[in-house]
Amino acid sequence: MRSVGYAALWSGIWSLFLLIAMMGFTDPAPNVPRDSDWMFWVMVAALLGLLCRAPFVGLVIRSDRVTRRSWLRSTSWPRSDVSLVRTAGYSGMPNWYGESGLFSMVVLTVRGSDVAVPELAGGSRKTDDRLRVVAALLGLPKPSAPGRHRGEPPPP
């Protein structure tokens, strides 16, 4: 399960960086030694690696494990360790890790600790739909107040 919009946004950003790097490499200043070409190839390799990772970013729920695949690493837990699924305001690099009131993301409670899953971010309605699907796949009760943001307590 993944958020196509989230992956598309970041793929666009990585593609833009790649385009800027290629423009800088192919149009150097005249009479400048090109000793630092290796830095271009390192940057291109890193950006292409991120672009190749885009289709795999998200949350994978199998019969015995839950795996969060982010841009740089994957983290996996036994399925039985996930005790709660809820939403929270999106917090990530595009908004300087502040909590968004406009976009939300899925949060898992694993072994008593909250694990944010920004790879399942989006508008409130889509995130609430993803929340219900994740809860059903994990066999957890449906959240009573989906779409709650900014740490607000659920209604009585």
Automatic annotation (TrEMBL):
The chain crosses the membrane at residues 7-26, 38-61. Keywords: Membrane, Transmembrane, Transmembrane helix. The keyword Transmembrane helix applies. This is PH domain-containing protein.
